[in-house]
Amino acid sequence: MELAKQIQSEIAFTKEEVRLHSLKKLRFGLPPIIGTYYFMPVTRQLAKRHLLPNFEAVEMGSADLMAQIADGKLNFGLIASIDQVHIPGVIAQKVASFPFVLATTNKDLPDEMYFEDVADEDFILLNEGFIHSRVFKELTNNTETFPRILYTTSNVEALKGVVKEGLGMTLITTLALQETDRDMHFIKLLNDDVPTFDIYLLARESVHVNDARADILQVIREYTDK
Q: Residue 225 has what pLDDT?
């Protein structure tokens, strides 16, 4: 019975890879934060080289994206992780790393703090679909510090908007901070166990691509290899 299930699984996987190869566009997985704040220069380059019509961004969270690539439903993508990425049959290359900081409108606070020092602060957080939620939970557990969570959202810009209204502080990767966010005060965390927001380029091994897809992957690698 187990052998039959394994054979059925391998047949389904092979069919999925054949289906992907038959698609004209290169389907590339992107989590929301990476797609919005990291990948935009690549999109511009694809447009300049007239490759954008051959490209399809598939937006989903990093955990779902890794599962899709592991199952052969996607061949390529960028994901965010705070752990090293190991997926059988997949090449995972770390291409960028960004720290997590606290963001607030209270400019009387110091530039560097321990998480224990914000126990009395109200927090605005990204929901459990984001790595930020896991990092926040690990900080609270490791330091036995449990600030009040006032509000959660899946929209990064909405989160920053609520923080800018002075309703609380947040934990956020510096990747998601832009020139328009300069009115906020950013605080470095001094705790030793704060991970970084790491971006990995994932590509299934032994994937054959046509010329247009190869050109798209070349543009992506030109950017991520910087």
A: 87
Q: What is the pLDDT of residues 157-179, one digit of tens each?
A: 999 999 999 999 999 999 999 99
DSSP state of 116: G
Q: Are strands 90-104 and 196-204 parallel, antiparallel or unpaired?
A: antiparallel
Global pTM value: 0.85
Give Cα separations from 223 to 14, 41, 59, 144, 161 (angstroms).
31, 8, 19, 40, 30
- Residue 34 CA to residue 215 CA, distance in Å, equals 21
- Give the closest residue to 99 by CA, choosing from 191, 219, 225, 211: 191
What is the DSSP secondary structure assignment for residue 85, as one 8-state letter? -
Across the range 108-127, mean pLDDT stands at 97
Q: Which residues contact 63 (CB under 8 A, 6 or more apart)?
A: none
* Pairwise CA distance, residues 185 & 181, whole Å: 9
DSSP assignment string, 181-221: GTTSEEEEE--TT--EEEEEEEEETT----HHHHHHHHHHH
Instruction: Pull the structure tokens for residue 29.
Output: 């997985």
Angstrom distance (rounded) from CA 78 to CA 123: 28
Burial 118-144 (b: 16+ CB within 10 A, else e): beebebbbbeeebbbbebbeebbeebe
CB 29 within 8 A of CB 67: no
* H/E segment holding residue 5: helix 2-22
